[in-house]
Amino acid sequence: MNIEYEVVADVPWHPCMNENAHDKVPRLHLPVAPTCNTLCIYCRRGIAAAGFQSGPGRTETILTPAEALQKTEHFLDKWGEDAIVGIAGPGDPLANFEAIETLRLLHKRFDGIHLCLCTNGLGLLDHLPLLQQIGLRHLTVTVNGIAAEIVEQIQPWIRYQKKKYTGRIAAEMLIVRQLEGIRQAARSGIFVKVNCVVLEGINSDHIFETAVEVKRHGARMINLIPRLDPTPNGLFLPAKAHKFELLQKEIAEVLPVFTKCKQCRADAEGIPGREVTCVE
To answer: Which of 173, 177, 119 is nearest to 148 (CA)?
Structure first.
């Protein structure tokens, strides 16, 4: 599919943000974030061997910060210092002390390392000073809507500062913190991409409005993720290919759309799409 959109200046040479870099730049996902601070109805986190189960919530093992440091050293020795090192799960990095400690260790050990982080944004404002301090350049925030009545159907509860919130209140808190986190991160010079999981019949007619709002707050790119694995009751079926392509084209009028996402695991390593830890 050929999508035309506005050219974004200074797009990072990152396999998940620059389509020309997608099959050229290696990246390492460090699975140091076992827990999450939100419940997402589409997420299936768990331990699974590479090649058997795919997706952002899957990993073969959970690493300690020390193990992550060692793995990164081997990875950079193999692929070079221009490779990307990120934390994308299996839970939310900013909800795990181990992930925060890993970022500190990586920054201290490897001068000029290209760090990347994927988060739901709930804890972004709290940790943004640290992310700025360690020189984080690439940030992906998953935003599934900007209307509380929609978001509460997708993320029915959150846990913030050791307290659990549910329903409309939880959704409102999440949205406010996501948008303000994106705004402040973008203002600090971090390149922000937004992931948006498309659930037919829930937020599928709300994506355009969401794209407009995240762009207004500083997002530079968006990645639309079709629901791939329907729940046992069959409510959330995968988007039909032609309909999804039309949605991508519509959203491209607002923001550049990244179209090569492989929905990689939390322990993916190497060139996207060339290893068993990713699905095509």
So the answer is: 173
